[in-house]
Fold this protein.
Amino acid sequence: MPRWIAALVVMLLLPVVGQAQPVLNIYNWSDYIDPYVVQRFTAETGIRVRYDVFDSLETLEGKLSAGRSGYDLVVPTSEPTFARLVRAGALRPLDRARIPNWANLDPALMARAAAVDPGNRHGAIYLWGTVGMGIRPDRVRVLAPDATMDGLALLLDPRHAQRLSRCGIQVMDSATDVIPSVLRHLGLDPNTDSAEDLRAAERALLAIRPFVRAILPSGSVLDALATGDVCLALTYSGDVIQASARAREAGRGVEVAYVAPRAGAQLWFDMLAIPADAPNPEAAEAFIDFVLRPPVMATITTHVRYPNAVPAARALVSEGVRNDPSVYPTEATLAASFVATTPSQATERLRTRLWSRFKAGR
Amino acid sequence: MSSPAAEREGPARKRERHLLLLGLPAILLLLGLFAWPVLRLLAMSVQDGTLTQLERAATDELYVAVLFDSLQIAGLVMVICLLLAYPVALWLTRAGPLGVALGMFALLLPFWTSVLVRTYAWMVLLGRNGVVNRALRDWGLIEQPLPLLHNLGGVLIGMVHVLLPYMVFPIYAALLRIDPDLSRAAEGLGASRWSAFRRVVLPLSLAGVGAGCALVFVLALGFFITPALLGGGRVVMISMLIEQQVRELLDWPFAAALSAVLLTVTLAVYAVINRVSRSARLATP
């Protein structure tokens, strides 16, 4: 047999041989774990991990809705993707007997996540956060000295927005994560189905549109905050905290702070979940159990600066991160916070239309 | 230019039928993988047995306004491409072999690069801390970075760059087909170079101009990636709303209705451009 044929045969057989060893296929957000955690999991269990990342929920949803994604563990955000997957029956109920560390989860937070997954049958909270503003306090103080930096008025009051537009305002491109906060700021029900309430939100957003420089995916907003390109952005808490850390490392005098709206911040949860057609669900459950150990969770939070839902892990998180109120919200912020529920189809239509009008300015 | 075709018509008709056989695989492929899915998509817009989806798509103020924006952007891109492409095509017909090779290389190299890659390259160039702004700042020409990205200007730059070859090549092909003796004859008969160009070369190249305009306009009208990335979420084209209906709302019937409206407008515009360029050609002596 010529050598190249032999080589070809070996290459064709390799994937087959590779299957003999258990493999866990994880699909998680980019920059969302301490790589050391994955290494330790493999060392302890002998399960090899193939780790892929996505940077938008649409990518994740696209892969999963096509079926046979081959992933064993995915990390969708509670609303809208996790909720949608639960309703579509695309997730496998978790076998809690295999996840003894489930007991470490904070019952209060899990109860709030149950809003979209009754009985928490399909997911455990991985990390969570709020929706709020990333700001450059020094610039805001100069441009809008009379503004208080604790609420969405900074963005939604056209007077402030106009002055701050000079150093740049961005809003993340996510109707689900922006509209509820706007409604709450206006004193309306963030999960409203009322067309009139949504029109009020639309008016508020269109009023500040001329002052918004760009409406971008959250990853791009993070970049703009970190480089000091903008001095006000509405986005996820963890992104602001990462941007702030990056800006500090760059050492160019850019200071970025996170502000959760005082009137009530939207809470979101990223859920550990197993696709219904996962090839290796047991390995996924072993991994969930592994990360729910307090020391492991603590490493992850220290590394990515998002809070977790394992109270016993908090004491083990590095001090700087643990005591940072923008990582772990204060009791008051948490008490005022709300969880977005799944809108009806008619409401979703209205919201999408509202969002398109905001983006197109028409 | 229609005379050679007329000569071939009579005796060669049988051979043309054989030639059709050569094209058959491609035609079948297009029918099966393009025409059929498009028809099915269009059928979706009336699947509930009424025209409500189509009516909503054609009358809703938001979608109509965005469609007009898209037409406007496509028109601007077409005009800018034409203004840039004509001189380039003309130069290519007059340049020496080295010039042609270089010009073709410069045109084709980006043409072979993925649109996505080129669009990201523009983001690197045009950003607030991008190459262009930094250079201008270093030279002391500006103090505040110019807003080149995340607006209409950025979208136009990106789209013109992607679509320029589609304008250059048809015009270049039309110019090549013009017998150089014609302009020499005109000049020999006393016409200035400018009027020889204006009255001989330009009219004869209008077929290429029409083809280029139609190609660029039609492609620009359905553009997605470039406006989505360079527009910063503030420049919305109709294709982006269609994508949103499919991806976020899973509303295929309404997406199909919007697509039907876009297809109708595209065909109408194509017909108009075709008619205009043909009558312009026929009007020339």
